[in-house]
Specification:
single chain, 101 residues, mainly alpha, two-stranded antiparallel ribbon, 3 helices, 2 strands, rod-shaped, DUF3098, membrane, transmembrane helix, transmembrane
Length: 101
Amino acid sequence: MDKRNFAFDKVNFMLLAVGMAIVIIGFILMSGSGSSETVFNPDIFSVRRIKVAPMVCLFGFLFIIYAILRKPAYTPLEEENEGAGEKKDEMSGTDATINKD
């Protein structure tokens, strides 16, 4: 399998996993008991649910966007593709130019 054909590298997938974990933590922070028709629960307006949890989720989504847009690191495999017009003659050790016509 040729790794040069992938848009993401290992670091991109790790950053995506971290971003998803942050978003999940944000949703867990938002959870809790709610109010019913007979009993009002003032905890639904707590700072944790109204301010902290949405900010954690927003940070997680921004982190995921960064992980998607991050360009993989430059590898020596890409360097081989840049010199595609030149090929080394393996028998004599000299450079031989390939015509692309």
